Amino acid sequence: MTPGKSYLSSDEIRPLAERSDAMGLWLVLHCWGVIACALALFALWPNPLTFVLAVMVIGSRQLGLAILMHEAAHNALFKSRKWNDIVGEWLCGRPILAELAAYRHYHLTHHRFTQTDKDPDLKLSAKFPTSKASLKRKFTRDLTGQTGGKQLLGQILMSFRLAGDDDAIEAATSDFAQSFKAPHLWKSLPVFIGVAVVMSLIGDWWWGLAFWLLPYLTWFQFVLRVRNIAEHGAVEQSQNPLQNVRTTKAGPIARLFVAPYWVNYHLEHHMVMHVPCWQLKSMHKALLDKGIGPDMRIASGYGQALAEAGWKRA
């Protein structure tokens, strides 16, 4: 049974779960529009500050594309499966070297077995809480491009090794999907490169490297890790839907740089996974109105979520 039905009636869930083609289109256009605005900011005022801001904003919107692909994986971005598949694949997934079909299969398994031994995401969350020193090392590797570079190289080598071996690709799919990676890299790489080329044609020759590859290798990896930690790091390893996942409150700055498109309402998403992301805030309020707020694992911000995961530990 859907966990949310233990707290909300079908009549309460139904309007929250209503999909909107107009809203789905707006979210995709918004994500790419923010990327365009970040480029325009640097073009108008080229300096080190606007460069760094552009890299951070674009990296956060690469996460935004991953989130919208996640919506499509749940068939929640658009009303029809067809448009979820087309847009989720080509405008959200492949530009960030992700693959919708592989991710959907992996992610639905995560929902079915959340924080149990069968959860494929458990290996990501089981290591928390950890030490502050360990978190610093992880964040340093992310922000210096070591994580992204290692993963990209691993994808390339794996694609060569698995070329033509469909059974081996299927076996490796979960290792890729957990980080929004495409097992069939060569189907996504032209799209990724295409975005970079368009950026270089708009600006200077190096723009594609600076404003698509660099954010992908650095800020995107950092916020992806922060998101993973906030959602399932240092939570209860049980089948209690109020405690085996975390919702994190996010203000405007956090939503811009770390948590786009309501991704912070993760407990609500696990309650009813087909509720569109733009309805999760309303669902959060509906659950609080039921008086179960004190029983829900809610962090006051990403600082608290990281503290629970080990940031304040020695």
Write the layout of secondary structure elements.
Blueprint: H1 10-16, H2 21-44, H3 48-73, H4 81-93, H5 100-112, H6 122-125, H7 132-143, H8 146-162, H9 166-177, H10 185-202, H11 207-217, H12 219-232, E1 247-248, H13 252-257, H14 266-271, H15 280-289, E2 298-299, H16 302-311
Helix pairs in contact: 2-3, 3-4, 3-5, 3-11, 3-12, 5-9, 10-11, 12-16
Transmembrane segments: 24-45, 51-73, 189-214
Protein name: Fatty acid desaturase family protein
Domain Fatty acid desaturase: 48-289
Notes on the protein architecture:
The chain has 314 residues and is an all-alpha fold. It has a domain at 17-227 and 252-257. It has 16 helices and 2 strands. The chain has helices at 10-16, 21-44, 48-73, 81-93, 100-112, 122-125, 132-143, 146-162, 166-177, 185-202, 207-217, 219-232, 252-257, 266-271, 280-289, 302-311, and strands at 247-248, 298-299. Strands 1-2 form a two-stranded parallel sheet.
Task: Provide the descriptors you would attach to this structure in a database record.
65% helix; globular; two-stranded parallel sheet; 314 residues; mainly alpha
Q: Count all strands and give the number.
A: 2
Give the CA-CA distance, first to last residue.
Answer: 41 Å
Mean pLDDT: 90
Query: Which strand-content bin applies to the residues?
Result: under 5%
Order of helices and strands: HHHHHHHHHHHHEHHHEH
* Helical stretch tally: 16
Give the fraction of residues assigned to helices: 55-70%
3D shape: globular
Structural class, from secondary structure content? mainly alpha
Report the major sheet. 2 strands, parallel
Radius of gyration: 19 Å
Largest sheet, spatial ordering of strands: 1-2
**Unreliable stretches, pLDDT < 50, 5 or more residues?**
167-178
Pfam families: FA_desaturase
Domain Fatty acid desaturase: 48-289
Protein name: Fatty acid desaturase family protein
InterPro entries: FA_desaturase_dom, Fatty_acid_desaturase
